[in-house]
Amino acid sequence: MKKAFNLPFIWELRKITLYFLFTIKALRKFKKASVLSNAFSDFPIWWKSIKRNLNPLDYDRPWITFEAKNFLDSILNSKMSVFEYGAGCSTLYFSRRVKAIYSVENNKEWFESLNKYIKENRIDNVNIHLVEGISTNEINTTYSSLSSDYRNINFEDYVKVIDTFPDMLFDIILVDGRARAGCIKHAVTKLKKGGYLIVDNSERKEYFRGNDYLFDPYQWSYCAFIGAIPFAFEFSQTSFFQKKY
User: Fold this and answer.
1) Model confidence over 56-107: pLDDT tens digits?
2) Vertex 203: Cα angle to 176 and 186 (nearest 5)
3) Same domain, 72 and 122
4) What would the mean pLDDT of 201-209 be, rounded to a whole number?
């Protein structure tokens, strides 16, 4: 009798194959040799995120590229204040490393799950605002999302939550939610001199429409990290813009 196939092994092999197929895709997309070296260095930690049956909220990493997370580790300290568009694993990651974290989230179900986790774990330095988008027939590109799931949804109120805070308050602002072009536009004045604006999935040029001043070397220092991300096969880019004045 023929030995039965080991289905779990075949599935594991398929995941590894997909990872390296997406590596090739990323090489073609980004056209940078660092993609290949990062793919090999990122693989062990990426593999753990894929294999382990984790509650995402127990995963102590923001869902940015692994190299970007390493850089972020090096600049954080316990005196910092952080604002983020898009709450989740990054919220919990920041809560363990900075003084205060303020988040805005548009998904009610995710907001409630995260709030429950925060209360159960007695995390007291996190403030999350739930601001859902509003249906509209008028499209404003500054306040709209690129996602087809949010077609004809206006996120102006969501974007403008940061306007309620004083200028130059935050050390870090992470843009990883909806209407990112608008989020960037409203975030800039709220960032301290020397602070970092972090834009995830920054390979998408649409996020920088009207925000190309971020690439002015006299105003901002810029670095980008391309590589794998947790729980996914796609490679992405996370960019850091440090405000000079």
Assistant:
1) 788 888 999 999 999 999 999 999 999 999 999 999 999 999 999 999 999 9
2) 45
3) yes
4) 94
Helix and strand numbers, DSSP H then E, in the chain: 7, 9
Q: How many structural domains compose the chain?
A: 2
- Same domain for 121 and 104, yes or no, is yes
Unique residue bearing structure tokens 């500054």? 142
Domain limits for position 110: 56-243
Pairing of strands 170-175, 81-85: parallel
Instruction: Give the relative orientation of helices 66-75 and 34-51 as an angle to the nearest 10 degrees.
Output: 90
Q: What is the pLDDT of residues 6-60, one digit of tens each?
A: 557 787 888 899 999 999 999 999 999 999 999 999 999 999 888 766 677 888 8
Task: Report yes or no: 96 and 122 within 8 Å, Cβ to Cβ.
Answer: no
CA-to-CA separations, 101 to 3, 85, 166, in angstroms, rounded: 55, 11, 15
Supply φ then ψ for residue 51, to 5 degrees.
Answer: -80, -40
- Distance from C-alpha of 133 to C-alpha of 151, rounded to nearest angstrom: 10
Task: Say yes or no: 83 and 196 in one domain.
Answer: yes
H-type alpha helices, the chain: 7-30, 34-51, 66-75, 89-95, 108-120, 156-159, 180-187
Total residues found in the chain within this entry: 245
At residue 50, the pLDDT reads: 83
Same structural domain, 112 and 22: no
